[in-house]
Design goal:
This protein has two domains: 1-44; 53-209, Sortase (Sortase, Chain: A), CATH 2.40.260. The protein has two helices and nine strands, in the order αβββαββββββ. The chain has helices spanning 2-35, 90-97; strands spanning 57-59, 70-73, 78-83, 101-103, 114-120, 147-151, 155-167, 181-187, 197-209. Strands 2-3-4-5-8-9-7-6 form an eight-stranded mixed β-barrel. It is globular, with a radius of gyration of 30 Å. The relative contact order is 0.16.
Length: 212
């Protein structure tokens, strides 16, 4: 037993000596490689990119304001162009509504904090010659979590619906949250009308580059 115990102790001592020698040699190699600038560069994983839809790349939303040119909500088959008039004159805005969705001139642009406000006609008449009168048909059918995508010339901005409601006919104002990035959609007969309308509010969830 004493002999076995002595062998075990000897093996333990040899392992300890080997480990100590390995550490010394490793440290010496690191110091040497560092002195000749031969250490490999560290790899830092990106935190701003991740796979998007159909090969798109998610990116941090641009801090440069971008005008919207298209709006898509697949859940209700919405796909329309967006115009950006610079005047708040009612006649100018009503004329713009004849071509699709309209960004209200004083609301936020894409890529910056604030609320992007869009108007669009809705009509359920059996025959409509100008399809722009049906631009925002069925936005009241959007559900919490539905995704509404707004496109600039090179980026898709996604918003998740958080509220859908009917605005009272006597409601003259719509609150535009200046903190964070938001999207508000409103149906209307005219910018000057007092009719009931649907309002959809959505919060920004991500931006995807369209440039590959």
């Amino acid at each position: 037993m004493a002999a076995q115990k002595g062998i075990v102790n000897e093996i333990g001592e040899r392992r300890g000596a080997f480990a100590a020698a390995f550490v010394v040699i490793f440290v010496a190699m690191v110091v040497f490689l560092g002195s000749v600038d031969a250490l490999p560069n560290p790899i830092h994983p990106s935190v701003s990119e991740e796979p998007g839809v159909s090969g798109e790349v998610r990116q941090t939303a641009s801090s440069t304001p971008q005008a919207p040119v298209r709006i898509v909500a697949r859940d209700i088959s919405l796909d329309a162009t967006v115009s950006n008039p610079t005047s708040v004159d009612v006649d100018v805005l009503d004329q713009a509504l004849l071509t699709g969705a309209v960004r209200y001139p004083t609301s936020a642009l894409l890529g910056v904090d604030g609320t992007l406000l869009m108007f669009g006609h809705s009509s359920y008449l059996p025959v409509v010659h100008n399809q722009a009168y049906k631009t925002f048909d069925d936005i009241q059918k959007l559900k919490t979590g539905s995704i509404v995508s707004v496109y600039s010339s090179d980026t898709r901005y996604d918003y998740s619906v958080v509220d859908v409601r009917v605005a009272n006919a006597n409601e003259d104002s719509i609150t535009l949250d200046p903190v964070g990035k938001h999207l508000t959609l409103v149906t209307c007969d005219s910018f000057a009308s007092k009719s009931n309308r649907f309002i959809v509010v959505a919060d920004f969830v991500g931006a995807y580059s369209l440039v590959h």
